[in-house]
Amino acid sequence: MRDMSRTSSYTDDMKRLALLVLVLFSVIVVSAQEAQLPPTPEDFARLINFRTSLEELNSAVSDGTLGSYQDRVVIIEGTVASSVVYSPDPNDFYAEVELISGRWEGLESVKVSRAFVVMMGPDFAGRIPERAPREPDPDQILQNMHITVAGTVYDVTMDDQGNPVPLIVAYDARQVN
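RESULT FIELD:
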């Protein structure tokens, strides 16, 4: 006759092993779901728009389709036409940069496109001076500088001629060499 206590012990050990395997498998599955995987090219294209220009954004303002840009990060280039620092305090830094680009129409006129770019927070403090320094830092954003901005289209505002233009909140900005 078989010893039932050994069989029962063996069965209990197998149950414990199966439970342990189940718990470990669950932890691995949950960890894999929480892990930050790199985005797929499709996910990247849904999040970031490299093909947007100031001219395209100005057209979207005119035809009422600017909302289609508000759920993505846009990467745009332009020239700094002006900048105003409203709060120079690094902890509460707030500045607005007028970004422009132009395209010749024929030989006699230039179509100018513009946006206002809000740059706020400690990362921008010191990068947008209230007055142009004699010896600028290479990271500073100055008038007439060609820059690339990564940001989110936030709203529409008016320029000094009363024309509606896009308002962009910047995540980062860099000089284009």
